[in-house]
Amino acid sequence: MTRPVLSIVTLVILALTLAACGDQAPSSVRASASAADASESAAESAAESAAESAPASEEASQAPVSGEGRLADIQDRGMLICGVNGSLPGFSVLADDGSVTGFDADFCRAVAAAVLGDSELVEYRALNADQRGPALQTGEVDVLIRNTTWTVSRDTAWGLFAPTTFYDGQAIMVNSTEVDATSLADLDSATICVQTGTTTELNLADAFRTAGVEFTPETFDTIDATYEAYQAASCDAVTSDRSQLTALRTSFETPDDHVILEDVLSKEPLGPVVPLGDDEWFNVVKWVVYATIQAEEFDITADSVEETASTSENPVVQRFLGVTPEGAEAFDSGLGLEPDWVVTMISQVGNYGEIYDRNLGPDQEIAIERGLNSLWTDDGLLYAPPYR
């Protein structure tokens, strides 16, 4: 056999092998799963590592997109496919009954309510850190809402980032009964547990190099392995987004012993991401987020939105809620949604403040202060452009 022919045969065999490996997709769960199926899925998704090793889905790895765009496909399908963490308290956790609760999960519901009229029409797909980019790049998920930091490389290669729903920052946590540290400078020559393949790993190196502090990283492939090593005192500290440290600390045997240092190692803007190449769908997800923020600014809640729509004479509020005053022309947002989509969404999911308080507020175990995640009118960073 000549060398050119041999090369061609080799390439064909390699292509077939890669195609066979490419059929695998992350596990998915439906909110309407039976009790038995839900129990099995809950066990598989109880930790991020479980999602990593879950059996391949039998469904096609890419959600089909017609020539009409993803919005039309979702409406034809009658189901939104939303990528989530699935095991992060306060943000997205798969329950024994098959339901998914949390801040991120509620934004999945908000998108479904706006697009399909029903916040429960969501298929949640538990994705680990390594699965996030491919799930967007292949179009397997319609939207990713999973503690994913907005960076330039992800913005250009993974997908388009909608407005930030949670402003976070990387921090370091120590067991105060074993490590006497109140700042990064106190961790000179410390061993730090960190999950590899994340922005966290690079931020850690940058922060310690900038501070002139020596450290030894202990890297792990999964979030579970990272925190198991930390709790077993295999390292002096653990680092991740402050929200993640706060959330997972609640599951420790003695959570009060574990102190999150005040040092902020990085900016971590977290929010929805959609696949590249569909501006119409990107606009929909953007304005769903903005609408939850604007509704809170207007003090429009799940309980008051329908009454406000029927009684308000404020033209700005009427336009926002899809109300056309007598003698006026109907407003067309250009989003391709029903005129009263905001009313439908807010009535089923609530405004930003309601979503936050329900999952992360002061009455919840995780209890994260809003801080930067307050409205701009309350010295926060949440600001919605005009709906006109």
Question: What topology emerges from the helices and strands here?
Answer:
Blueprint lengths: L2 H19 L6 E3 L4 H11 L2 H6 L16 H8 L2 E5 L2 E2 L3 E3 L5 E2 L1 H14 L5 E5 L5 H6 L5 E2 L7 H6 L1 E3 L4 E3 L1 E6 L14 E6 L3 H13 L3 E6 L2 H9 L5 E5 H8 L8 E3 L7 E3 L2 E3 L3 H19 L7 H7 L3 H6 L20 H9 L2 H9 L28
Parallel strand pairs: 2-6, 2-7, 11-12, 11-13
Antiparallel strand pairs: 1-6, 3-4, 4-5, 8-16, 9-15, 10-13, 10-14
Structure description:
- The protein is built from 15 helices and 16 strands.
- It has helices spanning 3-21, 35-45, 48-53, 70-77, 103-116, 132-137, 152-157, 199-211, 223-231, 242-249, 279-297, 305-311, 315-320, 341-349, 352-360, and strands at residues 28-30, 80-84, 87-88, 92-94, 100-101, 122-126, 143-144, 159-161, 166-168, 170-175, 190-195, 215-220, 237-241, 258-260, 268-270, 273-275.
- The longest helix is centred in the first third of the chain and has 19 residues, at 3-21.
- The chain starts with a helix and ends in a 28-residue tail after the last helix.
Structural descriptors:
disordered N terminus; alpha/beta; 5-stranded mixed β-sheet; 15 helices; D-Maltodextrin-Binding Protein, domain 2; elongated
Q: In short, what is this structure?
A:
With 388 residues, this protein is of the alpha/beta class.
Q: Structural class, from helix and strand content?
A: alpha/beta
Proportion of strand residues: 15-25%
CATH class label of the largest domain: Alpha Beta
Strand line-up in the sheet with most strands:
12-11-13-10-14
**In CATH terms, what is the fold-level topology of the largest domain?**
D-Maltodextrin-Binding Protein, domain 2
Low-confidence stretches: 1-61
The CATH architecture of the largest domain can be named as 3-Layer(aba) Sandwich
What is the helix content?
25-40%
Please tell me the total number of domains: 2
Instruction: Give the C-alpha Rg.
Output: 23 Å
Shape estimate: elongated
Q: Can you identify the CATH superfamily of the largest domain? A: Periplasmic binding protein-like II
Mean pLDDT level: 85
